[in-house]
Amino acid sequence: MRVGFIGLGNMGEPLAGFVLKAGFPLVVHDIRREAAATLLDRGAVWAESPRDVAARCDVICTCVPGPPEMQAVMLGPNGVLEGLRPGSAVIDHTTNAPGVVREVGVAIQARGAQLLDAPLDGGREGALEGQLTLFVGGDEAVLRRVKPVLDTFSRSVVWVGELGAGSVTKLVHNALAMSIDLLLAECLTLGAKAGVAVPRLVEAFREGCIVSQNMTFTKRMPATLFRGDFAARFALALAYKDFRLAGDLATQHGVPTRLLDLCQIELLEAMNRGWGDQDRIKASTLQEERARVTLRL
After folding, report:
1. Which residues are catalytic?
2. Strand locations in the chain, DSSP E?
3. The domain 3-162: what is its CATH number?
4. Contact (Cβ atoms closer than 8 angstroms) between residue 117 and residue 92
5. Alpha carbons 221 and 208: distance in angstroms, whole number
6. 168-291 adopts what CATH topology?
């Protein structure tokens, strides 16, 4: 089974590396050839376009920033659709709009192939460790066929329903995760301002039962907020994009989301500060400013 991987950024490059390490022949493409340098040195083969990847491979994985990029890769000139072979499976790992996924799925099915939406949970930390969770929408039989590929970089693969359900699940899950980020910052600044030393407060939270297993608190915040280092693991601009997609979903289905809306406004303020290329946790420094508390260890 020859695997193609399109999109070799913070998430895609390590995932492709695990596929290669597992012994699958690998064909790769990115808008920047230099992003593939390490993979090419390890034996991957370069393709000049998404079309070229699709023409060579049985399974094609895509991992790009959002819906417009996914549409371009799939449906644009020299896109996946132009090179797709009947019987192929396409797996989109993008955090995407469900409607876009379904639209692309129809086009792919017309070519005799199948699309799964399989967005990723676990952040760059999980990608580097090969310990992601995948929320998968689409045909279960297709999932069973490609699962050996997905198993190379995941700790669990959860089938959630028909095509598009993976994207719905990821959007609401991301909205929850990013809201927890902001609530953590509020609670920590309150505790610190009320007299508990930040290191003691963080230790107490680690030992407590609420966030002791939360990835943001146990991994992301120690590497970012608690150190004052906001180099992007998951860029704020992408986080804000995901919040907007969740908001669109809520509007489409008539579901009020008052708390999520407040969190989206917070990220918008951070975006307006010009922080879009920094880590999403940078938004928590807005609360530090308001509370006049610095959460550093």
Report:
1. 170
2. 3-6, 26-29, 45-46, 59-62, 89-92, 114-117, 120-121, 132-137, 154-161
3. 3.40.50.720
4. yes
5. 16
6. N-(1-d-carboxylethyl)-l-norvaline Dehydrogenase; domain 2 (1.10.1040)
User: 174-213 pLDDT, tens per residue?
Assistant: 999 999 999 999 999 999 999 999 999 999 999 999 999 9
Task: Mention every residue, 6+ apart, whose C-beta is less than 8 A from residue 1.
Answer: 24, 58, 59, 148, 149
Q: Is the pTM of this model over 0.90?
A: yes
User: Which tokens hold the place of 239?
Assistant: 């986080």
Closest C-alpha among 174, 134, 149 to residue 264: 174
- The tokens of 275 are what? 């922080």
Structural contact between residues 50 and 83, judged by C-beta atoms closer than 8 angstroms: yes
If DSSP codes are grouped into helix, strand and coil, which group holds residue 27? strand
Q: What angle do CA 276, 277, 282 make, to 5 degrees?
A: 65
Q: Domain map of the chain by residue range?
A: 3-162, 168-291
CA dihedral 158→162→167→173, nearest 10 degrees, is: -50
